[in-house]
Each structure stands twice: as structure tokens, then as C-alpha cells.
What we know:
heterodimer; A: mainly alpha; rod-shaped; B: mainly alpha; 9 helices
Amino acid sequence: MDELNLKDYLPEVEAPADFEKRVLAAVAARKKKGKSFFIFPGLSLSWRVAAVAASLALLVTLSFLVFPKLDVFFGQRDAGIFSSGARPGELRESFVTLTEPVDFHEEFSGLQRSKVIYILEPVDDRFLQEIRY
Amino acid sequence: MDEQELLRKIKEGDEMAFAALMTAYKDRLVNFLFHSTGDYEKAVDLAQETFIRVYFRAHQYRPIAPVSAWIFTIASNLAKSEAKKRKKMNLVSLEEITQEVGGEAASYDPPSSGLTRNLQLALEELPAHYRIPLLLKDIEGFSQEEIARMLRRPVGTIKARISRARHILRRRLEGALREK
């Protein structure tokens, strides 16, 4: 092949006449597309997606480290009930619902008005902490 | 105007400088990409994409290499990606489709027979990692060292690939050369 020069045998083609116009129109269109396309300029699309994912992961990690007690991801449901200082997730796992079979018959047997219904429920979490099994 | 100066102006968003750079390189690029892909329309698309990248990535250019090497590096990467895509999708070139349906081909009429046609077919069948270094050497005239830097491969690898590409072409064209 040394004696055969590819350039001598391969045909030469040229760009279409309106090439520059087409490219300038494409450049203008991409500029219009918005700045979001050019987040992390100079990176390919896949690297940009990876960079955005990494940034989100970093944000989540930082929010755990910087705001550990704000309960950003678990909501406020458990926050008011437990005051032991542990994280809501841990409390949810260690908490066991118990039904206390307390016989209030004697306490209420002396009452005269039998149609009154009393609903009893703990109003202070110290009560729960004092129970030992 | 000096190419480095053109690129400095493109960095500042000067579209006249960008148009001047395109005028200087468009034919060489389309020609190189045409022989890389074997498809004229695809070559024009890839050349456009090359210039779009040149425009938006002008700030990445470092004047340690010639502007031409930088532009052809971008074009080579696009040609490689296109070859991978085609391999995956097992695409037929537009040229073949238009010939089959009797439609009008782009602005390029392929030679129907002879050494040129055989050479084109043999080139199309070459794997991209052989074809691109060979074209950069033979068609664009880059040195093996420049090609090695452009394709981020050791010079020895590039030399071996060009030599291997010639060997494969020689074998495939033996018949056609004898006829000539």
C-alpha cells in the first residue's frame, strides 16, 4: 500500500454552500435553549448528569451532618412525642405499643352516675418511661 | 488573521471570527468525516456538531497544540462515537437507502465501480480505531506524533494501527489493484 496514496484515489467532497448559516443557526438555537444546558460548561451530557447527581448526594449528606435534629426527612410526626434526644428513626424502631390491662372497676364502682364514660389516656410521656418489664 | 487570534475572538463570542474559522476548515472537516463515516449527510451533521463544540468550548483550547489538531480531535471523537453507535444499531448508510429507493442522494455521487469504490468500501469496513488514524495521516497529513496526541494513544500504538490498517486495505484491494 506504500505506493498507493489514499489521497490520490479517494474523492474529495465539500461542505454545502449554506454550511456556516446552518451552524450559526444551530449555535443560536442552543443558546436559546437556556442556561440549564450549560450547567458545568465543557462537560459532556453524561458528565453533567453525574455532576448533578453527585451534588444532590452531597447536599443530602451535608443536611444530615449539619442539621441532624431538624428531622428534615422524617417529618414532624414523632418529634413532639419523644423527648429522650434519640433520633426519630431509632425511637420508632425501639418503641413497642403496649396495651395496659388496668381494671378501673373498683375506682368507678362507687360513682353514682353510671352513664358517664371516661376515656383514659396517658398525657405525659414520663409515665411510659417509668414502666419496667 | 492568525488562528490563535480567531479562537481568542470566538471565546469572546465573536461570530464573524467563528464564521471565518468555519470557512477555513469546513471542507477539510466534511471530507475527513465523509471518509470516516462513508455517509455524506452524516459527515455534514458531524462537521456542524464539531463547530458547535468549538464555539462553546473555545475556552478549553490551550495554545500548546495547533488549532487544526484541536478541531480534528473533536471531529475524530465524534467519528468514533458515530462508529460505535452504528455498530450497536447496525445502521445502513443513507447513501445506500437513497440508492435503494431511487431517491436523490445528497450532494455527492459515489463512483459505481473501480479502485476508488473498492477503496471506499474497504475503508468503510475497517474498524474505526484503524480507519481514523490512517485518514488523519493520509488525508489530513498529520504526523504520527500529532495523531497520538489527538487520539490520546502512545505513538507506538498509532504506528501499529496505521501499519495494520494499510495491511488490511492492501489485502482487500489486491484484486482491484491487479485489475488496474
